[in-house]
Amino acid sequence: MSGNTFGRLFCVTSFGESHGAAIGCVVDGCPPGLELSEADLQPDLDRRKPGKSKYVTQRKEADLVRILSGVYQGRTTGTPIALLIENTDQRSYDYDKIKQTFRPNHADYAYVQKYGARDPRGGGRSSARETAVRVAAAGIAKKWLREKFGVQIRGYVAQIGPLELALQDWDAVELNPFFCADPARVPELETLIDTLRSEGDSVGARVSVVASGVLPGWGEPVFDRLDADLAHALMGINAVKGVEIGDGMRAAGMRGTEHRDQMSPQGFLSNHSGGVSGGISTGQDLLCSIAIKPTSSITTPGQSIDESGAAVEMRTTGRHDPCVGIRAVPIAEAMVALVLMDHALRHRAQNADVVSLVPRIPSQAP
Amino acid sequence: MSGNTFGRLFCVTSFGESHGAAIGCVVDGCPPGLELSEADLQPDLDRRKPGKSKYVTQRKEADLVRILSGVYQGRTTGTPIALLIENTDQRSYDYDKIKQTFRPNHADYAYVQKYGARDPRGGGRSSARETAVRVAAAGIAKKWLREKFGVQIRGYVAQIGPLELALQDWDAVELNPFFCADPARVPELETLIDTLRSEGDSVGARVSVVASGVLPGWGEPVFDRLDADLAHALMGINAVKGVEIGDGMRAAGMRGTEHRDQMSPQGFLSNHSGGVSGGISTGQDLLCSIAIKPTSSITTPGQSIDESGAAVEMRTTGRHDPCVGIRAVPIAEAMVALVLMDHALRHRAQNADVVSLVPRIPSQAP
Amino acid sequence: MSGNTFGRLFCVTSFGESHGAAIGCVVDGCPPGLELSEADLQPDLDRRKPGKSKYVTQRKEADLVRILSGVYQGRTTGTPIALLIENTDQRSYDYDKIKQTFRPNHADYAYVQKYGARDPRGGGRSSARETAVRVAAAGIAKKWLREKFGVQIRGYVAQIGPLELALQDWDAVELNPFFCADPARVPELETLIDTLRSEGDSVGARVSVVASGVLPGWGEPVFDRLDADLAHALMGINAVKGVEIGDGMRAAGMRGTEHRDQMSPQGFLSNHSGGVSGGISTGQDLLCSIAIKPTSSITTPGQSIDESGAAVEMRTTGRHDPCVGIRAVPIAEAMVALVLMDHALRHRAQNADVVSLVPRIPSQAP
Amino acid sequence: MSGNTFGRLFCVTSFGESHGAAIGCVVDGCPPGLELSEADLQPDLDRRKPGKSKYVTQRKEADLVRILSGVYQGRTTGTPIALLIENTDQRSYDYDKIKQTFRPNHADYAYVQKYGARDPRGGGRSSARETAVRVAAAGIAKKWLREKFGVQIRGYVAQIGPLELALQDWDAVELNPFFCADPARVPELETLIDTLRSEGDSVGARVSVVASGVLPGWGEPVFDRLDADLAHALMGINAVKGVEIGDGMRAAGMRGTEHRDQMSPQGFLSNHSGGVSGGISTGQDLLCSIAIKPTSSITTPGQSIDESGAAVEMRTTGRHDPCVGIRAVPIAEAMVALVLMDHALRHRAQNADVVSLVPRIPSQAP
Question: Does this complex have an ipTM over 0.85?
Fold first, then answer.
């Protein structure tokens, strides 16, 4: 219960350090009978993995996932599915020099205050490498949600530093190294990242995820609202500093006549609330956004302290992303998938017998 | 497990409908020996309660809390503390006319799709009235955190609709009906709310909470990060659509050289991260903000449907806040307190024996 | 999370002390649409309540349960159901004299070592009075299980001290004050209890519960086996020292050819395993037994210590059952009901889509 | 949440099938700073492992455990400890012939009713092989409990079929293949097992575990009593049908004057209650016993059904223990260790600040 298990009914228990022997997880609670093999999980891992383009970290990891249990003759059995990803590129010597010091805005200092010590190799457990197992686990959830309900979960980068990026074309997202849905802007992004790298700096990002096909009725009314659990899931991604549902923080400046989503027999007239009302899905598209802070590991020197408390100047070298937000797209999708899967199961546990006499209206009026 | 219990070790289980017999909760896991009486809990309830000024809903509720168990001779015993608040002002006839229809942007429609039926009296369980029990429960957490660690948790309204409100003076917050920390702006707020009411409209708000005195080391590294659990807690408040830690969504547009919080032996040089690093508290002030959407219950008519799916025009009457965000201040403080209390206990469960040899640096360099 | 919540999906959170203002609980996770009123819960409370015959404690408690929330127009809404039982007979002066001392084999000493203090009034939280709320909560579970699946849960006293009592006639159980299913033995029991009371002594008991109509497939294979959760539930009743499933402890002395339950198309040929195999229900009758230790509160003086650690002689007076096991029948039924309800929901959460092609065989071959 | 995670604060999540690629677990919540290597875990695995003598199954498994994470430079870091045991002896062809049929008293039938299908290779997840990971995980708990509190957890076989076996000599337990504490009886046991094997039959057993050095105050008063959690843990071992604390089922026949454990300044005068009072440890030795049913896999033919529901005669071949209870000793110790570790952490989470003014008395008066 040190917070390494996610979910109540579809439970993912994660383990592993960036530069240890392996990372992995145990997925408990998956319904039986789902066709599943490593080939279902690898594509999203490949989308997340480092070293794919010069715009992200050059660490090379095969990120090959192996299913150790819970699948027999190509189908889930209902027993725990263990996933293992061995670490292959463990250049821990990169980190030796920083062992006695704390990198500014890294988890090092907080870890030492909490645990008395830390695994300094590549950030150990605080490394974003841990998120690979979430992506792998969520591959199962995505598949089940898609096959059973037709749910589709897609993300894109909506902002990189000063550049806001519109959702122009879903198909473009996979065709550039920035998960950018506005292909005309890609050259600007290339220039921005090149500039940052040469300046020894980094930049934040905003990632948006849209889940369509969500049935009305998922979520719980009070503490474990669907949006609250999404917030927990998304804020639990490394470097995330803000989570929005629908209009998000902009709602603070809006009027009721502007924000409220009116309804008609033909469908909802708007989606400012992002598909959740009172903590429960409405059947509209689920809209989430997150802000990822700029990479803290930059080559511009910064002030810090060492383990004795003395002042030091830090300059992080190594293979870091100038914008960690880019690779956060499959991770954010993964967390949304885990939440939806969990709530789909929670919903039917309590409400499997419910017959609503009220017609469901479309997500959006034409 | 329908999401009405909050916390892992300091657990609050909430019950009750807006217009039922009573609302209340059971608080399980409180350390024994804490001096406690109703007088410790009532002040925050009074801060939250409706009908205090003409700028909030005119519903009258005494909101008197009664401790039913878990306290003996003025001290907690370590057994569950049951808190009960009876509903006194149950004018449910106000709601009869809306029983067959769904109010736009209300939880009604989602509830019916989930449960097949709903309690229409005052929104039933989806009413913000439920938050009174969170405030009551959090009074226990606030007291324990203050007495044991010196933690102080304070909130204020940072924005009402178009008006951004600075943190000028903590003492002013309790002296005006808007929880506004910039007393010079109060007349503007009065005008805004009066205008909204006459126009039959409402407005959103942003609320900020600051927790000082938090020890470094609280939180968990992966899923149950301190910030992730704060996000869960805060997004779980009615009408909240966005949660930010530190610079929040603005981090998306920032550079690493700007955002990273450098450290010196004299203390942290900035607090863009809001007091959390890698999901664990750093000992800096904890900074959270939330956006509350504009009240959906407004007198301007809106399009909706009835239970047969037919189009209707809705005009919500009754006693509603033109800006529900105002009264969210004690609620947001309460949720922060519940999270901190839970993590303080979680931390010592695992790490009570830890002796960190690394000096703790001040929250802020002078 | 101090252990006052029972269940994962059908969750009962209990509160209250024997001589406090009230006892009660919050039931979270109940499916919506179940017809429910206090009249459904009162009968089992009346079966458990003290003072009904001269063979049990003479404490008078009305044990009237009140539903505070979660029910609207006579049906559950899916939101938490709060149940309240006010304490009426709070003769705490009975307990004043024992305040500074520890009763032998009572929880007093353990409580003080754990919490530093205790509520001495009537045993406070350690009193069997707390079990009334379990009985009330389980009334909901019993009703749902019966209406949805036809599950019937019945208990009887199988042994009181030296007297073993056969299951001769289910109907007789409610017609004598001993929950005895062998009516011819009742006079012996009357004599035994009268003798014990005059001798200032008490006696243990064995209670058996049979649940019929349980579907095959409930339970989980590893830690949360159906039988393991039953053991948790039943050992969690005050004074229980042993739990058996099927042949129970006798299995240690049996041979495989004798114990194994063979199967035929006409049904199972025996039920030594008590309806559970590999932690999962087989569709046979579920058979559980518990041993309840003899009442520790007896008038025969015993050695003990006081709060300073000095030796004292204790003689417990007050209104105690000579055999607490008798009133344990509805409590044991209640705990079985709570486990079955929880597992019925857990099962459908994961396995709602399962279609087993293997025919179900009858519980028992003719 | 399909029941493959054990514990609330010291959490073990188990995975793996008998004849899959590997079995293993993730241990979350271990305090940091504990010296740990595979060498700490292997001895108990070796005690449990099959094929060690001719009196247990001849399956050969190296049962070598590997620590994949959570340990750095020989000490736990506070992050999840993943343990992996690869399956080496996967003679699944042994099981091909039984694939279409259900073995009497095996989990096969229940699994198929629950999940619609099953992994038939060696019983899959229902195999006692899964318990190896519990033993490995508990090695961590045993070490921490021993080093921090001096807790010692030891088990022995107290009965094999008709033969009751006294606790004569703890040292003898490890010196014979039966975990028998009465070395003079070993020849009888050898004869019994040889006879059973030649007769194609099996026999049950009773295993007792004693934990000494447990501090008073561990456990929770109501549902999660220390004894209730022990019952859950021990009934969760394959083939266990009864759990006793202290005098256990015998308490049903005892009198209060006989059973109650009186106290004196020199210590407790008896231990009928087995070290728990009101669900909380008293500081006495913790005494638990379990009954393990006779092995269901025997060569004497039995009646069963096949997947179409038709009658078949089954004769289980393969490498089975004539008495599975023998190897249950390290498993039972393991489950007790997991419960105690969990409750030690739970206790200090809530009660770390408690100072009891009442002297602790010795476990046993001299």
Answer: yes
